[in-house]
Amino acid sequence: MNRVVLDASALLAILNEERGAERLTPELLSAAVVSTVNLAEVQGKLVARGLDPDDAWEAALSPVSEAVPFSAAQARIAGDLSAQTRALGLSLGDRACLALGLALDAPVYTADQSWKKLRAGVRIHVIR
């Protein structure tokens, strides 16, 4: 299977066993990657909930096969997406996820409903 990209919301859905997480099957997760920007976002949320930082880091990494460093090329793509995504309220983390999907030509998985309206040149799967 080719790689797939997980947004922070999809990663949190898995970790919190939320509705929609079941759509992220073991086969799909075996090919899943995450941007280091989204990884930082997830770890930060877990630490804010009281997890030890080391445990939060391990938990955030556990569902994915690879953390992909946020590159200058991805930064440019994320910046280019700003105007297009502003009305939908997408954050830098959201745009970093989309940038990784575009850079890898890989589909993106999110739990964020507003992404259904997005046309960014990458296939988007909303898990709930």
Describe the protein's topology.
Layout: E1 4-6, H1 8-15, H2 26-29, E2 32-35, H3 36-48, H4 53-61, E3 66-68, H5 72-80, H6 82-85, H7 92-104, E4 108-110, E5 124-126
Parallel strand pairs: 1-2, 1-4, 2-3, 4-5
Describe it for me?
This protein has a single domain, classed as 3-Layer(aba) Sandwich (Rossmann fold), CATH 3.40.50. The protein contains seven helices and five strands. It has helices spanning 8-15, 26-29, 36-48, 53-61, 72-80, 82-85, 92-104; strands at 4-6, 32-35, 66-68, 108-110, 124-126. Strands 3-2-1-4-5 form a five-stranded parallel β-sheet. The longest helix has 13 residues, at 36-48.
Name the features.
single chain, 128 residues, alpha/beta, Rossmann fold, 5-stranded parallel sheet, 7 helices, 47% helix, 12% strand, globular
β-strand number: 5
The biggest sheet, with number of strands, parallel, antiparallel or mixed sense and barrel status, is: 5 strands, parallel
| Structural class by sheet pairing and helices | alpha/beta
Summarize model confidence as the mean pLDDT. 96
Contiguous runs where pLDDT drops below 50 for at least 5 residues: none
Number of helices: 7
Give Rg in angstroms.
Answer: 14 Å
Helix fraction, binned, reads: 40-55%
Strand content: 5-15%
- CATH topology category name: Rossmann fold
What is the spatial order of strands in the main beta sheet? Answer: 3-2-1-4-5
Order of helices and strands: EHHEHHEHHHEE
